Amino acid sequence: MESPILRALVLLFVVAERLNAQSEDADVTVTLEQGSLKGLRIESVRDRELLAFLGIPYAKPPVGDLRFKNCSVHTGNQQLPEPSEELKAVMVWIHGGCYKGGSASSIVYGPDHILTEDVVLVTINYRLGLLGFLSLREVGVPGNNGMKDQVMALRWVQTNIAKFGGDPNRVTIFGESAGGASVHFHLLSPMSKGLFHRAISQSGSALDPWAYAEPDFMRRKAFRVGERMNCRTSDPQQLLRCFQQATAETLVNSTIGEVFSTSDTVVPVRPTREDGAESDGNVFLPGKPETLLASGNFHSVPYITGVNSREAIVYVKDLMSIPSFWDDHRTHIRNVVVDLLNLEDLSVANEVADMAVSYYTAEVNQTLLGKYVDLFSDLGFVLGTQRTLKMQAALSTAPVYSYFFAFDGGLGIAKLALQTQIEEGKGVDREPARI
């Protein structure tokens, strides 16, 4: 039996008065083609009454024979209601987590602050790790199932959101880190056409070096993960069979590990291109992100993207927790840089990595840890975002906006959740290197 954490669900929040509930004590029920949903009344930290509809399935669970396959929609073909002036803008949140962790849980991504504005908020779950991103093209698994789950959720929004007071013609998708990169991938995907009208990528771009991998890279990683699961074989069909027989928990745990582990890649599973792969006709990514952008093959919608100062500070705890990492830190840092750069020519990769390490460690007014935080911030986040801005602004027919957030307050996730802070004053609000 599949773990419930792997089911594809929508969490939906709306300001209470939008659904005109009869009384404060009355159950709030919304009837869709697939059945009726009962909502919960909750009070936000800002003392506003909200209605929450939690755990809404947007597609049939991809379990059993459907594992590693594209989701199929629940039966029913509901007529889309005509939009009216009463319908509100919709915001759909895509969580991050290196494509291997995270969730849409309201514990982390609650509606309290964003619903001070009169919008409808939707947060979605999607398959992660091998379940969402396994790619073995020669046996009919082209990859990107996690991204196709997101497409299915966006289709659900188009079909049903008017029932919750949301306007299907005013949908903004937004996300952070891998969620931000996911948003950018939807701009490049033919499957996502018409499913959203604005987009916001926070600290994530399809051009970030960790966000995308070539099919050969994904194939190698599949066999490497298989070895960790005692699926030792050189036959892709046998490997797939072993993955299909494994428990869901085993598959999820196979790609969860230390971010800077010296024995694995930083982001082991990623979206990949599907051109030339055997598929069921549902191609999410028809080419390399950079090629699609350069040729203008993306959806021109108003787009906001940007980064924070010292993005990589969230990984400080990982760096500090691996003593062996610091015994030969230059070698280990170089290996991580080589992995992020995704270069096939190892001699070139090592040369570039050595140059990067030398450049960033030359700053004398920072701790060694601070220098590496700056290196990974620029390489992992700033580089891809700046390239995205330049390429997309040159060809988009819609506005493209940029931001850089550098406020060093007390409510940052690195300080609260990870209990991490780099104390030296210099560099805390440092401008990113210009690439």
TrEMBL record:
Keywords: Glycoprotein, Hydrolase, Serine esterase, Signal. Residues 1-21 form the signal peptide. Its EC number is 3.1.1.-. SUPFAM superfamilies: alpha/beta-Hydrolases. GO terms for molecular function: carboxylic ester hydrolase activity. The keyword Signal applies. InterPro entries: AB_hydrolase_fold, CarbesteraseB, Carboxylesterase_B_AS, Type-B_Carboxylest/Lipase. Residues 28-72, 84-407 form the Carboxylesterase type B domain. The keyword Glycoprotein applies. It is an enzyme of class 3 (hydrolase). Belongs to the type-B carboxylesterase/lipase family. PANTHER family: CARBOXYLESTERASE (PTHR11559). This is Carboxylic ester hydrolase. It comes from Coptotermes formosanus. The lineage of its organism: Eukaryota, Metazoa, Ecdysozoa, Arthropoda, Hexapoda.
